[in-house]
Amino acid sequence: MKKRVYIKTYGCQMNERESESLAAVLGDRGYEIIDDEHSADIILLNTCSVREQAEAKAIGKSNLLSRGKNNGKIIGIVGCMAQNLGEKLFQQSPHTRLVVGPNSIEKIPEYLDQLMENKNNPIIDIETHMIGNQFAARHDEKKVKPSMFVSIMQGCNMRCAYCIVPKTRGPECYRPMETIIDEIQWLAEYGAKEITLLGQIVNHYGNRQMPNVNDKSPFVQLLEKIQTIKDIQRIRFMSPHPNGFRMDLIDAYRDLSKLCPHVHLPLQSGSNKILRAMGRPYTSEQFLSIVAALREKVPNISISTDVIVGFPGETNEDFQMTCNLFEAVKFDMAFVFKYSIRPGTIAEQLEDQISKEEKEERNQILLKKVEHYSQKYNETLVGLKKEILVEGVARRGQQQFEGRTPEYKKVIFLGDENCIGRFVDVKIERSTTSTLLGKLI
Ligand code: SAH
Ligand code: SF4
Ligand code: F3S
Protein backbone atom coordinates (compact mmCIF):
# COMPACT_ATOMS: atom_id res chain seq x y z
CA MET A 1 0.00 0.00 0.00
CA LYS A 2 1.14 3.52 -0.71
CA LYS A 3 2.58 5.33 2.30
CA ARG A 4 0.53 8.37 3.20
CA VAL A 5 2.25 11.70 3.87
CA TYR A 6 0.80 14.73 5.55
CA ILE A 7 2.73 17.99 5.13
CA LYS A 8 2.06 20.92 7.43
CA THR A 9 3.56 24.22 6.36
CA TYR A 10 4.54 27.15 8.59
CA GLY A 11 6.17 30.43 7.61
CA CYS A 12 6.41 32.35 4.39
CA GLN A 13 5.34 31.81 0.79
CA MET A 14 8.70 30.28 -0.05
CA ASN A 15 7.93 27.48 2.38
CA GLU A 16 4.47 27.08 0.85
CA ARG A 17 5.99 26.83 -2.57
CA GLU A 18 8.62 24.32 -1.44
CA SER A 19 5.96 22.18 0.22
CA GLU A 20 4.13 22.11 -3.14
CA SER A 21 7.26 20.92 -4.96
CA LEU A 22 7.92 18.37 -2.25
CA ALA A 23 4.37 17.02 -2.43
CA ALA A 24 4.61 16.67 -6.22
CA VAL A 25 7.98 14.93 -6.08
CA LEU A 26 6.81 12.57 -3.32
CA GLY A 27 3.78 11.77 -5.47
CA ASP A 28 6.09 10.85 -8.38
CA ARG A 29 7.88 8.49 -6.07
CA GLY A 30 4.82 6.56 -5.03
CA TYR A 31 3.81 8.33 -1.83
CA GLU A 32 0.27 9.54 -1.36
CA ILE A 33 -0.19 13.10 -0.11
CA ILE A 34 -3.16 13.47 2.20
CA ASP A 35 -4.88 16.29 4.10
CA ASP A 36 -5.65 14.38 7.25
CA GLU A 37 -2.78 14.03 9.68
CA HIS A 38 -4.49 11.23 11.64
CA SER A 39 -4.37 8.71 8.84
CA ALA A 40 -0.84 9.61 7.79
CA ASP A 41 2.14 7.25 8.04
CA ILE A 42 4.55 10.14 7.71
CA ILE A 43 4.11 13.69 9.03
CA LEU A 44 6.41 16.41 7.75
CA LEU A 45 6.45 19.81 9.41
CA ASN A 46 7.91 22.41 7.06
CA THR A 47 8.95 24.98 9.64
CA CYS A 48 9.88 28.65 10.10
CA SER A 49 12.35 30.33 12.49
CA VAL A 50 11.76 33.98 11.78
CA ARG A 51 10.31 34.75 15.22
CA GLU A 52 10.37 32.84 18.47
CA GLN A 53 6.66 32.25 18.21
CA ALA A 54 7.02 30.55 14.83
CA GLU A 55 9.45 28.05 16.32
CA ALA A 56 7.34 27.57 19.44
CA LYS A 57 4.34 26.61 17.30
CA ALA A 58 6.20 23.95 15.35
CA ILE A 59 7.93 22.58 18.44
CA GLY A 60 4.58 22.43 20.23
CA LYS A 61 3.12 20.52 17.32
CA SER A 62 5.98 18.05 17.10
CA ASN A 63 5.80 17.41 20.85
CA LEU A 64 2.11 16.80 20.60
CA LEU A 65 2.73 14.30 17.82
CA SER A 66 5.48 12.61 19.77
CA ARG A 67 3.46 12.36 22.95
CA GLY A 68 0.27 10.99 21.46
CA LYS A 69 -0.20 7.40 20.39
CA ASN A 70 1.57 7.92 17.19
CA ASN A 71 1.37 4.34 15.98
CA GLY A 72 4.83 4.30 14.57
CA LYS A 73 4.36 7.34 12.38
CA ILE A 74 7.51 8.88 11.04
CA ILE A 75 7.84 12.54 12.03
CA GLY A 76 10.10 14.83 10.06
CA ILE A 77 10.99 18.40 10.89
CA VAL A 78 12.16 20.18 7.77
CA GLY A 79 12.68 23.76 6.56
CA CYS A 80 14.16 26.73 8.38
CA MET A 81 13.83 25.53 11.98
CA ALA A 82 15.51 22.24 11.05
CA GLN A 83 18.42 24.26 9.72
CA ASN A 84 18.46 26.53 12.73
CA LEU A 85 18.20 23.96 15.53
CA GLY A 86 19.61 20.86 13.83
CA GLU A 87 20.43 17.85 16.07
CA LYS A 88 18.71 19.41 19.09
CA LEU A 89 15.36 18.60 17.52
CA PHE A 90 15.93 14.87 18.02
CA GLN A 91 16.00 15.48 21.79
CA GLN A 92 13.26 18.08 21.86
CA SER A 93 10.89 15.87 19.96
CA PRO A 94 11.81 12.22 20.52
CA HIS A 95 9.78 10.70 17.68
CA THR A 96 11.49 12.89 15.11
CA ARG A 97 13.33 10.74 12.61
CA LEU A 98 14.19 13.29 9.95
CA VAL A 99 15.69 16.78 10.19
CA VAL A 100 16.28 18.46 6.83
CA GLY A 101 17.10 22.12 6.09
CA PRO A 102 15.40 24.09 3.33
CA ASN A 103 18.29 23.78 0.92
CA SER A 104 18.24 19.98 1.09
CA ILE A 105 14.50 19.66 0.80
CA GLU A 106 14.68 17.87 -2.54
CA LYS A 107 16.46 14.96 -0.89
CA ILE A 108 13.52 14.20 1.40
CA PRO A 109 11.97 11.51 -0.85
CA GLU A 110 15.26 9.61 -0.85
CA TYR A 111 15.55 9.95 2.95
CA LEU A 112 11.99 8.77 3.47
CA ASP A 113 12.73 5.68 1.36
CA GLN A 114 15.69 5.00 3.64
CA LEU A 115 13.58 5.48 6.77
CA MET A 116 10.95 3.12 5.46
CA GLU A 117 13.69 0.48 5.33
CA ASN A 118 15.04 1.27 8.76
CA LYS A 119 13.27 3.62 11.13
CA ASN A 120 15.94 3.32 13.77
CA ASN A 121 18.50 5.40 11.95
CA PRO A 122 17.41 9.02 12.20
CA ILE A 123 18.59 11.20 9.31
CA ILE A 124 19.83 14.77 9.45
CA ASP A 125 20.87 16.91 6.48
CA ILE A 126 21.50 20.59 7.05
CA GLU A 127 24.02 21.14 4.26
CA THR A 128 23.59 24.17 2.04
CA HIS A 129 23.01 22.88 -1.49
CA MET A 130 21.59 24.71 -4.44
CA ILE A 131 18.09 23.36 -5.01
CA GLY A 132 17.98 21.85 -8.50
CA ASN A 133 15.77 23.44 -11.12
CA GLN A 134 13.73 20.36 -11.65
CA PHE A 135 12.68 20.41 -8.03
CA ALA A 136 12.19 24.18 -7.89
CA ALA A 137 9.97 24.08 -10.98
CA ARG A 138 7.97 20.99 -10.06
CA HIS A 139 4.21 21.35 -9.54
CA ASP A 140 1.42 18.82 -9.42
CA GLU A 141 -0.59 19.45 -12.59
CA LYS A 142 -3.79 18.56 -10.74
CA LYS A 143 -3.13 21.31 -8.22
CA VAL A 144 -2.51 24.25 -10.53
CA LYS A 145 -4.68 27.11 -9.32
CA PRO A 146 -5.54 30.41 -11.02
CA SER A 147 -2.84 32.16 -8.98
CA MET A 148 0.50 30.43 -8.47
CA PHE A 149 3.85 31.09 -6.78
CA VAL A 150 7.13 30.75 -8.65
CA SER A 151 10.37 30.82 -6.70
CA ILE A 152 13.08 32.59 -8.69
CA MET A 153 15.95 32.48 -6.22
CA GLN A 154 17.13 31.07 -2.93
CA GLY A 155 18.81 32.64 0.08
CA CYS A 156 19.75 36.16 1.07
CA ASN A 157 23.04 38.10 1.00
CA MET A 158 21.90 40.83 3.39
CA ARG A 159 22.68 40.71 7.08
CA CYS A 160 19.78 42.52 8.71
CA ALA A 161 20.76 42.51 12.37
CA TYR A 162 17.52 40.93 13.59
CA CYS A 163 17.10 38.28 10.92
CA ILE A 164 17.70 34.52 10.98
CA VAL A 165 16.97 33.95 7.27
CA PRO A 166 20.58 34.27 6.00
CA LYS A 167 21.50 31.53 8.48
CA THR A 168 18.65 29.23 7.56
CA ARG A 169 18.71 29.74 3.81
CA GLY A 170 22.31 30.58 2.99
CA PRO A 171 23.58 32.90 0.26
CA GLU A 172 21.62 34.09 -2.76
CA CYS A 173 21.42 31.69 -5.71
CA TYR A 174 19.43 32.56 -8.81
CA ARG A 175 17.59 30.19 -11.11
CA PRO A 176 18.39 30.57 -14.81
CA MET A 177 15.86 32.83 -16.51
CA GLU A 178 14.88 30.28 -19.18
CA THR A 179 13.90 27.68 -16.61
CA ILE A 180 11.68 30.20 -14.83
CA ILE A 181 10.01 31.12 -18.12
CA ASP A 182 9.51 27.44 -19.00
CA GLU A 183 7.91 26.85 -15.62
CA ILE A 184 5.53 29.79 -16.04
CA GLN A 185 4.61 28.67 -19.56
CA TRP A 186 3.86 25.21 -18.22
CA LEU A 187 1.71 26.69 -15.43
CA ALA A 188 -0.17 28.78 -18.00
CA GLU A 189 -0.92 25.62 -20.01
CA TYR A 190 -2.47 24.10 -16.92
CA GLY A 191 -4.66 27.12 -16.27
CA ALA A 192 -2.65 29.59 -14.16
CA LYS A 193 -3.51 33.20 -14.90
CA GLU A 194 -1.54 35.01 -12.23
CA ILE A 195 2.05 34.48 -11.12
CA THR A 196 3.74 35.74 -7.96
CA LEU A 197 7.53 35.64 -8.17
CA LEU A 198 9.13 34.78 -4.86
CA GLY A 199 12.51 35.51 -3.33
CA GLN A 200 13.82 36.95 -0.07
CA ILE A 201 14.84 39.98 -2.12
CA VAL A 202 13.28 39.39 -5.52
CA ASN A 203 14.69 42.53 -7.07
CA HIS A 204 18.23 41.25 -6.37
CA TYR A 205 17.56 38.48 -8.88
CA GLY A 206 20.66 37.92 -11.03
CA ASN A 207 22.73 40.55 -9.20
CA ARG A 208 26.33 40.54 -10.38
CA GLN A 209 25.80 37.28 -12.24
CA MET A 210 23.57 38.29 -15.11
CA PRO A 211 24.23 41.44 -17.13
CA ASN A 212 22.06 44.55 -17.21
CA VAL A 213 20.59 45.13 -20.68
CA ASN A 214 19.69 48.69 -21.72
CA ASP A 215 20.09 49.72 -18.09
CA LYS A 216 17.54 47.15 -17.04
CA SER A 217 18.33 44.79 -14.19
CA PRO A 218 17.98 41.03 -14.69
CA PHE A 219 14.82 41.19 -12.54
CA VAL A 220 13.17 43.72 -14.85
CA GLN A 221 14.29 41.68 -17.86
CA LEU A 222 12.56 38.70 -16.31
CA LEU A 223 9.36 40.71 -15.78
CA GLU A 224 9.46 41.80 -19.43
CA LYS A 225 9.74 38.21 -20.59
CA ILE A 226 6.81 37.13 -18.44
CA GLN A 227 4.76 39.99 -19.87
CA THR A 228 4.96 38.19 -23.26
CA ILE A 229 3.51 34.89 -21.99
CA LYS A 230 0.07 34.90 -23.48
CA ASP A 231 -2.15 33.29 -20.89
CA ILE A 232 -0.50 34.89 -17.89
CA GLN A 233 -2.41 38.06 -17.30
CA ARG A 234 -1.14 39.23 -13.96
CA ILE A 235 2.34 39.42 -12.51
CA ARG A 236 3.17 40.05 -8.85
CA PHE A 237 6.30 39.61 -6.79
CA MET A 238 7.44 39.59 -3.19
CA SER A 239 9.34 40.86 -1.44
CA PRO A 240 11.49 43.53 -3.02
CA HIS A 241 14.03 45.47 -0.95
CA PRO A 242 14.19 49.28 -1.08
CA ASN A 243 17.87 48.79 -1.86
CA GLY A 244 18.02 48.15 -5.59
CA PHE A 245 14.45 49.41 -6.20
CA ARG A 246 15.60 51.57 -9.08
CA MET A 247 14.02 53.53 -11.91
CA ASP A 248 13.93 50.52 -14.27
CA LEU A 249 11.64 48.74 -11.82
CA ILE A 250 9.55 51.84 -11.15
CA ASP A 251 9.14 52.33 -14.92
CA ALA A 252 8.10 48.68 -15.26
CA TYR A 253 4.94 49.53 -13.30
CA ARG A 254 4.08 52.01 -16.03
CA ASP A 255 5.27 49.97 -19.00
CA LEU A 256 4.21 46.40 -18.23
CA SER A 257 0.44 46.13 -18.42
CA LYS A 258 0.42 42.81 -16.54
CA LEU A 259 2.39 44.04 -13.56
CA CYS A 260 -0.27 44.59 -10.90
CA PRO A 261 -0.59 47.99 -9.20
CA HIS A 262 0.51 46.70 -5.82
CA VAL A 263 3.87 46.58 -4.13
CA HIS A 264 4.80 45.02 -0.82
CA LEU A 265 7.86 47.03 0.16
CA PRO A 266 9.26 46.25 3.63
CA LEU A 267 10.15 49.38 5.59
CA GLN A 268 11.09 47.85 9.00
CA SER A 269 11.47 51.26 10.71
CA GLY A 270 10.89 54.94 10.02
CA SER A 271 13.89 56.03 12.08
CA ASN A 272 17.22 56.38 10.27
CA LYS A 273 19.07 55.57 13.45
CA ILE A 274 17.19 52.28 13.84
CA LEU A 275 17.47 51.45 10.13
CA ARG A 276 21.23 51.86 10.48
CA ALA A 277 21.31 49.65 13.57
CA MET A 278 19.22 47.08 11.71
CA GLY A 279 21.68 47.09 8.83
CA ARG A 280 19.03 48.24 6.36
CA PRO A 281 21.00 50.29 3.83
CA TYR A 282 18.49 53.08 3.11
CA THR A 283 17.03 56.07 4.89
CA SER A 284 13.40 56.97 5.50
CA GLU A 285 13.86 59.78 2.94
CA GLN A 286 15.00 57.29 0.30
CA PHE A 287 12.05 55.06 1.11
CA LEU A 288 9.71 58.03 0.68
CA SER A 289 11.25 58.92 -2.65
CA ILE A 290 10.63 55.39 -4.00
CA VAL A 291 7.01 55.71 -2.88
CA ALA A 292 6.68 59.12 -4.54
CA ALA A 293 8.18 57.85 -7.80
CA LEU A 294 5.84 54.84 -7.81
CA ARG A 295 2.82 57.02 -7.16
CA GLU A 296 3.83 59.34 -9.93
CA LYS A 297 3.76 56.43 -12.43
CA VAL A 298 0.73 54.63 -10.95
CA PRO A 299 -1.34 57.11 -8.92
CA ASN A 300 -3.56 54.53 -7.23
CA ILE A 301 -0.91 51.95 -6.52
CA SER A 302 -1.52 49.93 -3.39
CA ILE A 303 1.49 49.92 -1.08
CA SER A 304 1.92 47.53 1.81
CA THR A 305 4.83 46.90 4.12
CA ASP A 306 6.47 45.00 6.99
CA VAL A 307 7.58 46.85 10.08
CA ILE A 308 9.25 45.80 13.33
CA VAL A 309 8.46 47.55 16.61
CA GLY A 310 10.72 47.41 19.64
CA PHE A 311 14.07 46.77 17.97
CA PRO A 312 16.81 47.25 20.62
CA GLY A 313 17.41 50.94 21.28
CA GLU A 314 14.12 52.09 19.72
CA THR A 315 13.13 55.16 21.74
CA ASN A 316 9.71 56.80 21.78
CA GLU A 317 11.07 59.34 19.29
CA ASP A 318 12.24 56.57 16.95
CA PHE A 319 8.86 54.90 17.18
CA GLN A 320 7.19 58.25 16.54
CA MET A 321 9.22 58.51 13.32
CA THR A 322 7.80 55.17 12.21
CA CYS A 323 4.30 56.47 12.98
CA ASN A 324 5.05 59.63 11.02
CA LEU A 325 6.24 57.62 8.07
CA PHE A 326 3.05 55.55 8.18
CA GLU A 327 1.09 58.77 8.08
CA ALA A 328 3.14 60.12 5.20
CA VAL A 329 2.85 56.96 3.08
CA LYS A 330 -0.62 55.80 4.21
CA PHE A 331 0.18 52.13 3.65
CA ASP A 332 -3.06 50.42 2.85
CA MET A 333 -1.87 47.20 4.49
CA ALA A 334 1.00 46.37 6.81
CA PHE A 335 2.34 43.49 8.84
CA VAL A 336 3.50 44.80 12.20
CA PHE A 337 5.91 42.53 14.05
CA LYS A 338 7.12 42.78 17.62
CA TYR A 339 10.88 42.38 17.60
CA SER A 340 11.85 38.85 18.58
CA ILE A 341 15.42 38.02 19.61
CA ARG A 342 16.89 35.39 17.30
CA PRO A 343 19.85 33.54 18.79
CA GLY A 344 22.97 33.94 16.71
CA THR A 345 21.94 37.20 15.04
CA ILE A 346 23.82 40.48 15.42
CA ALA A 347 20.94 42.12 17.30
CA GLU A 348 20.97 39.42 19.95
CA GLN A 349 24.08 41.07 21.40
CA LEU A 350 22.64 44.59 21.45
CA GLU A 351 21.91 46.22 24.75
CA ASP A 352 18.84 48.25 25.44
CA GLN A 353 16.28 45.56 24.64
CA ILE A 354 12.75 46.94 24.77
CA SER A 355 10.31 45.55 27.33
CA LYS A 356 7.50 43.25 26.29
CA GLU A 357 4.90 45.78 27.45
CA GLU A 358 6.47 48.58 25.45
CA LYS A 359 6.55 46.43 22.32
CA GLU A 360 2.92 45.50 22.79
CA GLU A 361 1.91 49.13 23.24
CA ARG A 362 3.73 50.23 20.09
CA ASN A 363 2.28 47.27 18.23
CA GLN A 364 -1.26 48.36 19.16
CA ILE A 365 -0.68 51.98 18.21
CA LEU A 366 0.64 51.02 14.80
CA LEU A 367 -2.05 48.41 14.18
CA LYS A 368 -4.69 51.09 14.76
CA LYS A 369 -3.04 53.29 12.17
CA VAL A 370 -2.86 50.46 9.68
CA GLU A 371 -6.53 49.69 10.22
CA HIS A 372 -7.43 53.31 9.71
CA TYR A 373 -5.57 53.64 6.41
CA SER A 374 -6.71 50.21 5.15
CA GLN A 375 -10.28 51.22 5.75
CA LYS A 376 -9.75 54.55 4.03
CA TYR A 377 -8.12 52.94 1.01
CA ASN A 378 -10.83 50.32 0.74
CA GLU A 379 -13.51 53.00 0.92
CA THR A 380 -12.01 54.64 -2.17
CA LEU A 381 -12.82 51.44 -4.07
CA VAL A 382 -16.51 51.41 -3.13
CA GLY A 383 -18.70 52.16 -6.13
CA LEU A 384 -15.96 51.25 -8.62
CA LYS A 385 -15.99 48.48 -11.16
CA LYS A 386 -13.05 46.13 -10.59
CA GLU A 387 -11.75 43.15 -12.46
CA ILE A 388 -11.07 40.23 -10.18
CA LEU A 389 -9.46 36.88 -10.76
CA VAL A 390 -11.72 34.35 -9.04
CA GLU A 391 -9.65 32.01 -6.92
CA GLY A 392 -12.31 29.84 -5.30
CA VAL A 393 -15.16 29.47 -2.85
CA ALA A 394 -15.15 31.99 0.00
CA ARG A 395 -14.88 30.69 3.53
CA ARG A 396 -18.42 31.75 4.32
CA GLY A 397 -19.68 29.39 1.55
CA GLN A 398 -23.28 29.63 0.27
CA GLN A 399 -22.47 30.55 -3.31
CA GLN A 400 -19.97 33.12 -2.11
CA PHE A 401 -16.77 33.24 -4.10
CA GLU A 402 -13.60 35.20 -3.70
CA GLY A 403 -10.91 36.70 -5.81
CA ARG A 404 -8.55 39.63 -5.83
CA THR A 405 -8.46 42.97 -7.55
CA PRO A 406 -5.27 44.02 -9.33
CA GLU A 407 -4.44 45.95 -6.12
CA TYR A 408 -4.47 42.62 -4.24
CA LYS A 409 -7.67 43.41 -2.36
CA LYS A 410 -9.84 40.43 -1.62
CA VAL A 411 -13.42 40.70 -2.91
CA ILE A 412 -16.27 38.40 -1.90
CA PHE A 413 -19.29 38.13 -4.17
CA LEU A 414 -22.25 35.93 -5.03
CA GLY A 415 -21.47 33.74 -8.03
CA ASP A 416 -21.23 30.20 -9.30
CA GLU A 417 -18.60 27.51 -9.78
CA ASN A 418 -18.05 28.51 -13.39
CA CYS A 419 -16.39 31.74 -12.34
CA ILE A 420 -13.43 29.97 -10.71
CA GLY A 421 -10.26 30.65 -12.63
CA ARG A 422 -11.87 33.41 -14.69
CA PHE A 423 -11.63 37.18 -14.66
CA VAL A 424 -14.95 38.77 -13.83
CA ASP A 425 -16.07 42.34 -13.31
CA VAL A 426 -17.64 43.25 -10.02
CA LYS A 427 -18.98 46.46 -8.61
CA ILE A 428 -17.61 47.08 -5.12
CA GLU A 429 -20.55 47.72 -2.82
CA ARG A 430 -19.13 47.61 0.68
CA SER A 431 -15.78 47.55 2.41
CA THR A 432 -14.26 46.52 5.71
CA THR A 433 -10.62 46.87 6.79
CA SER A 434 -9.67 43.58 5.20
CA THR A 435 -12.30 42.68 2.63
CA LEU A 436 -14.51 44.14 -0.03
CA LEU A 437 -17.98 42.94 -0.88
CA GLY A 438 -18.94 43.13 -4.52
CA LYS A 439 -21.63 42.25 -7.01
CA LEU A 440 -21.09 40.59 -10.39
CA ILE A 441 -21.80 42.91 -13.32
N1 SAH B 1 13.26 39.14 2.93
C1 SAH B 1 12.20 39.92 3.37
C2 SAH B 1 11.69 39.58 4.75
C3 SAH B 1 11.59 38.18 5.17
S1 SAH B 1 11.12 37.94 6.83
C4 SAH B 1 12.68 41.36 3.40
O1 SAH B 1 13.84 41.63 3.63
O2 SAH B 1 11.86 42.20 3.23
C5 SAH B 1 9.53 38.72 6.89
C6 SAH B 1 9.42 39.81 7.87
O3 SAH B 1 9.58 39.30 9.19
C7 SAH B 1 10.48 40.89 7.78
O4 SAH B 1 10.16 41.83 6.79
C8 SAH B 1 10.48 41.48 9.16
O5 SAH B 1 9.58 42.56 9.26
C9 SAH B 1 10.00 40.35 10.03
N2 SAH B 1 11.07 39.84 10.89
C10 SAH B 1 12.22 39.24 10.51
N3 SAH B 1 12.98 38.93 11.60
C11 SAH B 1 12.29 39.35 12.69
C12 SAH B 1 12.53 39.33 14.09
N4 SAH B 1 13.65 38.84 14.59
N5 SAH B 1 11.58 39.85 14.90
C13 SAH B 1 10.44 40.36 14.40
N6 SAH B 1 10.16 40.41 13.11
C14 SAH B 1 11.06 39.91 12.24
FE1 SF4 C 1 16.21 38.88 6.45
FE2 SF4 C 1 17.09 41.23 5.71
FE3 SF4 C 1 17.50 39.12 4.16
FE4 SF4 C 1 15.06 40.10 4.39
S1 SF4 C 1 16.82 41.17 3.52
S2 SF4 C 1 15.65 37.95 4.51
S3 SF4 C 1 15.01 40.78 6.49
S4 SF4 C 1 18.38 39.47 6.17
FE1 F3S D 1 10.38 31.63 8.03
FE2 F3S D 1 12.29 30.56 6.65
FE3 F3S D 1 10.38 31.91 5.45
S1 F3S D 1 12.52 31.54 8.62
S2 F3S D 1 9.84 33.43 6.96
S3 F3S D 1 10.14 30.04 6.54
S4 F3S D 1 12.52 31.87 4.90
Describe it.
The protein is of the alpha/beta class. It has three domains: 4-125, Rossmann fold, CATH 3.40.50; 133-377, Alpha-Beta Horseshoe (pyruvate-formate lyase- activating enzyme), CATH 3.80.30; 385-440, Nucleic acid-binding proteins (OB fold (Dihydrolipoamide Acetyltransferase, E2P), Beta Barrel), CATH 2.40.50.140. The chain has 14 helices and 19 strands. It has helices at 13-28, 52-67, 80-85, 88-92, 108-117, 133-136, 165-169, 177-189, 218-227, 247-255, 272-278, 284-297, 316-329, 356-381, and strands at residues 4-9, 32-34, 42-47, 74-79, 96-100, 123-125, 147-151, 153-154, 173-174, 194-198, 234-238, 262-264, 302-309, 333-338, 385-393, 400-404, 410-414, 423-431, 435-440. The strands form five sheets. Strands 2-1-3-4-5-6 form a six-stranded parallel β-sheet, with helices on both faces. The chain has a five-stranded mixed beta barrel with strand order 15-16-17-19-18. Helix 1 links the parallel strand 1 (4-9) and strand 2 (32-34). The chain is globular, with a radius of gyration of 22 Å.
What form results from the Cα inertia axes?
Answer: globular
Low-confidence residue ranges: none
Mind telling me which CATH architecture of the largest domain this is? Alpha-Beta Horseshoe
User: What's the CATH topology name of the largest domain?
Assistant: pyruvate-formate lyase- activating enzyme
How does the major sheet shape up? 6 strands, parallel
**SS-based class:** alpha/beta
DSSP helix count?
A: 14
